[in-house]
Amino acid sequence: MAFFSGVQRFLRQSSHNLTSVRLCSTTLTTPKLFISGLSRQTTDRKLNEAFAPFGQLIEAKVITDRASGRSKGFGFVSYASIEEAEKAGKGMNAKFLDGWVIFVDPAKPREPRPPMQSESQQPSETGFTVNKTVGWCG
Hints:
This is RRM domain-containing protein. The chain is α+β, with helices and mostly antiparallel strands and 138 residues long. The protein has a domain at 32-106: RRM (RNA recognition motif) domain (Alpha-Beta Plaits, 2-Layer Sandwich), CATH 3.30.70.330. 27% of the residues lie in helices and 23% in strands. It has helices spanning 2-15, 44-51, 82-92, 118-121, and strands spanning 32-36, 57-64, 71-79, 95-97, 100-106. It has a five-stranded antiparallel β-sheet with strand order 2-3-1-5-4, covered by helices on one side. The radius of gyration is 23 Å and the shape is elongated. The relative contact order is 0.19.
């Protein structure tokens, strides 16, 4: 019993000193933000409504799976200025949206994908594409 009261006392004392788990600490160079931790039920419209109070919102996009159409749990928000994006990053980081804690970070530029190998793209003499998988794929 004394153990539980000690834990409760510790939690009460430490809860006053807690800050956000992750902070958007890097200086923004672009007005685009990366939003992670989104609920599967979060839509573009809900994301737009949550981030609109911080400035002129250009775009709010939840990234979805092509096959299922469900949210992948992250999205992007773009503002008209970097100052508005910084204000939104500080205001919405580690906040609840649709019951989930979301995290706001600066968006990074998209990395170029390596070009696909031309061998696997070309069909064989019979018109079929050859899959040259080596080893067990079980």
